Amino acid sequence: MIHTIRNIRxxxxxxxxxxxxxxxxxxxxxxxxxxxGRKEELIRPAIQAAERALGxxxxxxxxxxxxxxxxxxxxxxxxxxxxxxxxxxxxxELLRAKGLLDTFAxxxxxxxxxxxxxxxxxxxxxxxxxxxxxxxxNLVKPPDxxxxxxxxxxxxxKGKVTVASMGERTTVGWLAAIMAARGxxxxxxxxxxxxxxxxxxxxxxTEVRKAVSGAEYAxxxxxxxxxxxxxxxxxKSPIGIVYPDQGPTDMGTPVxxxxxxxxKGARNADAARSLLEFFLTPDGNRLLVEGxxxxxxxxxxxxxxAEKGIxxxxxxxxxxxxxxxxxxxEPKVERLFGGAMTP
Amino acid sequence: xxSSGVQTSRLRFVRDLGLLLPAAALVLGPVGFLAWxxxxxxxxxxxxxxxxxxxxxxxxxxxxxxxxxxxxxxxxGVPLAWLMVRSDLPGRRLIRWLAPLPLAxxxxxxxxxxxxxxxxxxxxxxxxxxxxxxPPDSRIVSIYGIPGAAxxxxxFCFPYIFLLVAGALERMNPSxxxxxxxxxxxxxxxxxxxxxxxxxxxxxxxxxMVFLYAWADFGVVSLLRVRxxxxxxxxxxxxxxxxxxxxxxxxxxxxxxxxxxxxxxxxLGRGRYTQVSSASRPIGPVPLGRWRIPAMLFGVLVLLCSxxxxxxxxxxxxxxxxxxxxxxxxxxxxxxxxxxVWTAASGATVASVLALVIGWxxxxxxxxxxxxxxxxxxxxxPGTVLGLGMVGFFHAALPWLYGSxxxxxxxxxxxxxxxxxxxxGAALAQISPSxxxxxxGLGRGPLATFREVTFPLVRxxxxxxxxxxxxxxxxxxxxxxxxxxxxxxxxPVRIWIHTMDVGPVPTAALLALVLVAIVAVPWxxxxxxxxxxxxxxxxxxxxxxxxxxxxxxESPRAAADAQPEGAHAVPxxx
Lengths: 343, 574
Description:
Number of strands of chain A: 11
Shape of chain A: globular
Shape of chain B: globular
Order of helices and strands of chain B: HHHHHHHHHHHHHHHHHHHHHHHH
Oligomer: heterodimer
Number of domains of chain A: 2
Distance between the termini of chain B: 53 Å
CATH architecture of chain B: Orthogonal Bundle
């Protein structure tokens, strides 16, 4: 008899536990779920402001953009996420082609140059970043500073250059820009020459910035805001920033837009749209731009790091390529250079 | 009579299927999903696309890493165990208490610490440059690469070998060694010709765990820049939408891991002849003489590198946060701490109970061995691979579970039921069925027999297994990173995200300390109190500690080999 009571108690405890779990899960389903490929600490101020402004609770799921896109594809029939934030237009375009994104239009988008936008409003560009070289100024003195990506295959830089793996989508986008500007054969030879010259592939851009500021490598091929992040970490870091290939006949350096999109079939589609709208308001966009040290795409916003040598759009040369053209080349880059660009 | 026999066998059939099918689905489902995704374009396509990745040199490199780690762990673990059990080293009791503790520090956190200290731009180089008056940016030491990774992995894995060898030494019948001494052999000859061969199964068992841990590691190699199959898989998972390459690589890795496991078990299986009588009597400690100081230095150095320094560095980093900032941060992170604790506790509880059932069946029916073998395969799947496979498999097969934390717990089961079986199974195997029969003969029903006879006897093993699996679940990173549902991060995931985004910041150090503390408390309690709490027999029933983090493997065979001498892993005589 006593044992029976004890058994019943155990069963009850298990049932209560399960109910609580399911209740918690149900509550979670009401939150706006943002699949974000951005650095969580940096995007958080904008997300928190959105929570206050919109009165919704946001669950941020941070992972590699590829992993997020893979999940969205897997969850096609039963989406768990509402908003996707990627690091280049690459995955947004792949998802669009697979019919996994909902369209989103806003009059504000007209402020943004057409090359950064999605032709059918499948995604929105929220901010931008530019590919640059970050140099260690103790190791590289001004007369030697490379002026082009293509200088880096010179013997002088053997074993001194580093780049993030293609786990960072901007690495893929950068090679896509080179392939678009110079052709596939040229790009193949360039990557082979870089590798032969001892190019070090690191896990991510944070490692690249630390390796360059710590004098492990002289030059890092990375994105402009890592330069600002490093200066924020240690104001006296011996680092400099170079906008490569700026001559009149050079290809320029590519700019990538950060993309946000509403996932098709999202459980909280309305809230998802509100979040995107919030990202395009001056206040929301300013938080994104300042939180992540990005280049603003909307008019009238202050450019972070302008006093530290960061240039606004239009102040430097960039390839005449749309984000969609870059995105279309990304799968090919991934296939051709995946092996070489794995850490 | 006959009809009740038929009924029993039918019931048994249902029970067996009820155990075997879910186990097989949990383990083979994810691997099957990956095989399907990876080989969808044909094996030729996979070979062409992975050509540039340099798979074979990578396999060789990982093999080298795992072998070096095992060797270094043995060099730390075996002498330390001998010094503690057999010598007159001062502070032996302290070693007994401290040496198992590095297991509470996840190796990837150890790697984080060594990165802070020994990276080319780390503090050690700064100190060396300054004190030796070298030009700035001279880089004398670098933790990156295979030697550094092997060093870090061995520092946080050596307790596996230490625990098994210490246990073996404590149970070893000293009369053989005494006879050898009496026959005029030197102490060294006795050690190398008599003691060491008798320790072979314990060293082999512990070494296998270390080897397989290093083989499947993701966190340490990723932080310390060693290119392995697991880091390649993760890079593809993170940076591409492609399934072919990560899934194909995963299946390949699972196949070789299973093969390595099979080969090693075969090799270890030959060590069985060394079983010794457990009826040992105490012998006097061996005087160290002039080796006393070097031996002390050795012990201090190992514990400093694996325990003192890492905890010190983490505490120093975390101390940069003000108390109010730290508490604000922790309360903000409290839901993640809660997630970790409840999933780990659930995983540990279900794994222990399941292990009890499987262990009980294993000693009595063939089906138990089948289920156990299934979980061993799961144990051999690297966490990164299991995560990827389970996400896909659950979405396809059990969509109502996909996206819930239950998936995480199921993942923990696949990875860690085997270590739990080790503990409870070894304990159950020692219970003679005649005891249960006697209870039945005295009129107790099967449940009452279990509750009043079997359970009290296996309880110590169950407790130790629970603590062990709790620790392993709390530490798990690789599978959790991929399996976690949105909004359900765990402590290791938070530490990882913080570290990947901005480097080893004070907040990451603080979280790491919290993780170590949560893991260390039950672990210390077990090491300290278990014997007192559960009586003398406890030592023989506790588990062979198994590997941690993402993966490691062991089999009942390895356990059986290690069991008589070394099974006692966790608690010892104090």
